[in-house]
Amino acid sequence: KEKKDVKIYNATEDAIALADALARNPADCDVLVDILPALSRDQMFDLRSEYEGYCKTEEHDGNLAECIKLRVGGVFGEICYATVLGQYESEGYWVERACSSNLMALSMLGGALFGRPNIEIQEIKDKFRSVKYRSSLTQLVEDRLEVDQARRIALVALAAERQGESDTRPDEYRDSDVDELHRAIDGRYDSQLLWRIMLRSDAQLREVLKEYTRKYRINLPLKILWMSYDPALVIISYILIGVMNRPARDAQSLYDALMALTKSELKESRMSLENDEEWKFQLLASILVRAHWDRRHLKNVKIEYEEKYQSTVELDLVNATTGYFREFCLGLVRTET
């Protein structure tokens, strides 16, 4: 059998190219678009280390993310910055952005924190860096997130106390959850239901959904989503849809973010941090950066997207965005090797 050549990523060339691009005035954004979206998590780590070794001086710490933050502005700079942070550090950044906007708090927090296994939550917390908040993401949320319900929900997620996937429970736990969810459908919603759902494992929730469907013949997550704008119920639906079909849920989140931008009159020239609708671009960026770390999952998201919405992610990105931000987004969703 023929052996396939394994290509080993050499970060030196990219580190030099980025250093040169960021030293120019203005920065050469084409280089950032060409290099950053295509890198895997491990390759990004190698690039950051190589860049630091190449650029570190007595006056300069050689931090690639901070260099981008200083030299590249607007939403393009922000998506570049978040991508360079890597898979878990970027989630802490999106939580931080959520804390500064009541408009997008739950939407941004959802992808970053809800429905994740404990080990990933711990990784996100460990990677968070802040002098002001003593590198504690929990402290940041307690101090900065103004919306009471969003803050409480985020703190439950950050506690990283979800049931383990191998932790089986007696049937009465499942039956109790089924009964509580049915009461929510009837409008008799107990606020404690959200905490219970957030702490159940995916395996346990699949059993709950299976039993609920058998008993009531209802697509529970969609029913909850249609019946109420209560943020807690929306989060329950988000978690349950993810348990049933994560690519379909993420395709829906991506579609909603793109449609919000398509209906907006914003142009790239108006993309500044002071813009009231900046959060729409930030939400889209967070979804794309998160998805691109897992190319297999991203491919499934794109398949679900095309089947459900009769369009492609790429086409809708072209219609919703412009300039370097658009090119970077298209690079993030490229799945062919």
From TrEMBL:
Keyword check for DNA-binding: no
InterPro entries: Annexin_sf
UniProt keywords, alphabetically: Membrane, Transmembrane, Transmembrane helix
Stored SUPFAM superfamilies: Annexin
Presence of the UniProt keyword Transmembrane helix in the record: yes
GO molecular-function terms, A-Z: calcium ion binding; calcium-dependent phospholipid binding; phosphatidylserine binding
One Gene Ontology term, aspect cellular component: nucleus
Transmembrane residue ranges: 224-244
Protein name: Annexin
Annotated source species: Glonium stellatum
